[in-house]
Amino acid sequence: MGSYLNPGNEKFQRSLNSKIYVDKTELISLLKKRILFELKMQNKDCELFDEANLTFTLQDIYAQKKVPYVVLIDEWDCIFREKQQDVEGQKKYLDFLRDWMKDKEYIALAYMTGILPIKNTEAILH
User: Fold this and answer.
1) Are strands 69-73 and 107-112 parallel, antiparallel or unpaired?
2) What is the pLDDT of residues 37-54, one digit of tens each?
3) What does the alpha-carbon distance between residue 77 and residue 8 come to, in Å, rounded to a whole number?
4) Per-residue pLDDT tens for 69-102?
């Protein structure tokens, strides 16, 4: 992840330089559960095949309501900058994005910000 600093904020700088390890694995899992929960709460009238699967849930809701989603991913390319040696992790991430959004009727628009052009990974995306 990038480091964003408010100049002159000494407490934040101290935290930024501390040796605290944050395991984001559980955070990602919790975020996925929260998104699925929100989708289910907003679409109680929809029948869902697999309530634990984000792709299936989005497909099911779209099939019943015909309302596509707009997805915003800030810094989509972070893994390529921060984990340059983790080729397997990068491949899994690209596979996830492709499986989740590529050619899906339930995606109206995917807006992805970052500093790397998407064309750099064009061969992997296709």
Assistant:
1) parallel
2) 999 999 999 999 999 998
3) 28
4) 999 988 888 888 888 888 888 888 888 888 888 8
Q: Is 3 left (phi over 0), alpha (psi -120 to 50) or beta?
A: beta
Helix, coil or strand: residue 75: coil
Question: By three-state DSSP, how is residue 107 classified?
Answer: strand
What is the rounded distance in angstroms from the CA atom of residue 90 to the CA atom of residue 25? Answer: 15
Contacts of 57 (CB under 8 A, 6+ apart): 36, 39, 40, 48, 50, 51
Q: Give the separation between CA 99 and CA 59, rounded to whole angstroms.
A: 12
